[in-house]
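Changelog excerpt

This revision adds worked examples to the README so contributors can see how folded entries look when concatenated. The first example is reproduced verbatim below.
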Amino acid sequence: MRSPVADLLADLARAFDALGISWYLFGAQAAIVYGVARLTADVDVTVRAPASTTDEWLSILEGFGFARRFTDPAFIVQTRVVPVVHLATGLPVDIVLAGPGLEDELLQRAVVQSIDGVAVPVVEIADLVILKVLASRPKDLDDVAALLRTHGDGIDLTRVREVLTKLEQALGQSDLLTAFKKCQARALT
């Protein structure tokens, strides 16, 4: 018997296949795939925005058992996030619309993983570390330390540092590499 998350991902995969769009799982569910013990009740995915209008592709998504969790279409324009719920499981899903650049690169680097027998594209582990450092919430940094502790040798740390350096420059921040180094130190304890 599949888990509710796997049931949701199976329906999501069918919907995205019908739409012909690329996607990947990220966030806490991706951390779980990579072995981090984590409690979460939501699913986060990134998609390459389809060529059709939002209403058109949301109608298709609804045909696969998802319902909108928003009333104002301007929310999507402002946030690039489409919040839906999977009706069969009641689990919320945040669909992030990928922009050009880094998110397109992450889509290309996604790795297909089996989640309870469902083939799911999951953000590559170094990219997950980058996204979690970028978010920098305490639980995200805990996930980074756990990922480094569990998969340290399997994570492209050079890539992580290079991308975080570029993000610091692009965003005018100077705290991402510091946060990453702190996570590395925590992973050793």
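The second example, added in the same revision:
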Amino acid sequence: MLKIKKIIKENDNKKLTVYLLLRLLVIISMVLQFFKGNYSNVLLCILTLILFLIPSFINHKLKIELPSLLEIIIYLFIFSSEILGEIQNFYGIIPQWDTILHTINGFLCGAIGFSLIDILNRNDQVHINLTPVFVALVSFCFSMTIGVLWEFFEYGMDSIFRMDMQKDRIVKEISSVKLNENKENVTVKVDNIEYTILYTKDGNFIIDGGYLDIGIKDTMKDLIVNFIGAFVFSIIGYLYITNRDGYKFAENFIPRRRKN
């Protein structure tokens, strides 16, 4: 019993260290962005500090206990997405940065969806007893739903506020019926595109290397890697339900109801 308490205390200390360190880095970044005059980034830092409070809110207000490892991953995910990704432009510097974060998001949302059903399954006051396959399926569907809603959000921000959350990509080939001179529903394939030119009233833009794809490839890539993350955790969740002692490591990612 003492050994278990010691492990819990050590994990809590690590969680607190990560939390305080990341908050300090966000505050430093906020001050620097303020003096640079990037006030939109200052607001982004403030949003990050608010998002850091979500695990504490879930723990104290909703009486849901987040495992220390899961909480640390959430802090790192928020920091990586907002500060490193947006302010430090890791999305542009590291091509796979967005892919990594969306994969992790699919995994985390799968864990959250799994815990919601598993808590009900093990609650004596709720008359529900779902099979492991169904719990895993709900976990997967929950994660994919969150992923789709996020893509809706990105599309809305791009459409309304003219942002570029759905990152544009350069492609070498396209297939489109719009290029069919006879107006038939037959695709015209264009390969080995070297460059495209955008003609506007304010000037022309030359896109070297291919054709500018507006968001669709980024959106589909995000959903595919979200699918992978959700699927991986669904398998882990299924194995955990069927053999909780054998796959005890899964508890590091599964929120649970607080007993006290």
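Reviewer comment on example two: The CA atoms of residues 133 and 238 lie 6 Å apart. The beta strands are 64-65, 169-171, 174-176, 188-190, 195-200, 203-208, 211-213, 256-257.
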